[in-house]
Amino acid sequence: MEEAKKKIQSLIEKYEQVLNSGKIGDYSEQETKNAFITPLFEALGWDISNKDEVSAEESQKSGGRVDYGFYLNGRLVFYLEAKPLKADLEREDFAKQAIRYSWNKGVDYAVLTDFEGLKVFNSQIIEGALMDRRIFEINYKDYINNFERLWLLSKESFQNGLLDKYADEHSKRLKKIPINEKLDKDIQECRKLLTESFRMWNTKEDIDLIDEGAQKLLDRLVFLRVAEDRGIEPHTLKELSRDLGSQREKNKKDVYQALTSKFRELDDIYNSNLFSEHPFEKWEEHNQSTEEIIEILYGKPGYYDYDFSAIPSDVLGGVYENYLGHRLEKSKKGTAVSKDAKKRKEQGIYYTPTFIVDYIVKNALSPILDKCFISALFCHTFSSCQAA
Is the entire prediction scored with pTM above 0.90? Predict the structure, then answer.
């Protein structure tokens, strides 16, 4: 800690020289990172040169990127969003940028800094104002005077869970709502809304077919949200909902009908069971439940936004397994359950977590692919020699 203080004191003096020279505005974000932010976290014990410990500029498929991800024993512990010297850290969009990505990734903490100031947020708090999510903030002038607080972002601190303890003591973790819990709750709410709406407007349809149709429509909407955020499909769901909803009296076609027409186009594009024709496409739905569900799948403006390109596949897999559990529980109570769900139950077919997939690929496929690569390289070299 004493060695860290010396290094940070040197950075403070360097910053004040730049400040007094009036050249603060000349520093770009990258120059700020190189000259101040990276050395600051190196002083706090992080190995910036080790990509397994600190990743630089993790990209988001929905656009943009996050500056640094900090890992401990392979586990992501916080994301850091860097800004150029003299940036206005009070701007809410800066903080939300860091918080949004961390929350969707299921990471507890988000850090925002331009070196002059530093803010730490609990990204898992989604209710209340932005200040409710802030765990602490500190100005560069207090980096040494209040070093114990700055040290909460050190590698040693995370090894000992010190930031967790600090957040608990200051009641900054009590309202924590992880992405997996929130998404699962919202998906359940969407399923309930759809099922009730279909039952209301299609009284002659079989109840089990109604449930199946509701899940099929929900599957398609989630797929489209993922495709939108990954840049595979344009952002059409919200625009469709808003455009048709705002002109409801003029339009003979509502959002639900427009979507069912769109599904026929998507079936030609993706040629998969997901978009194959289903009876629900000819059902009635006139209480705007589909519009409400689309809004839910985008998140709650000002509190949290779903970014399906950042949400780990484990989260989506867990949500779907919860649905299968729901279906199987209904079967125990005498309600019919789909053959697909029964098959998964009987044969032990469940979603495989990412870390297990990575382990299997690394230990089963990698050795084989390495041999293939070596063989191909040998053949190429041998052929080149023959040609020569």
Answer: no
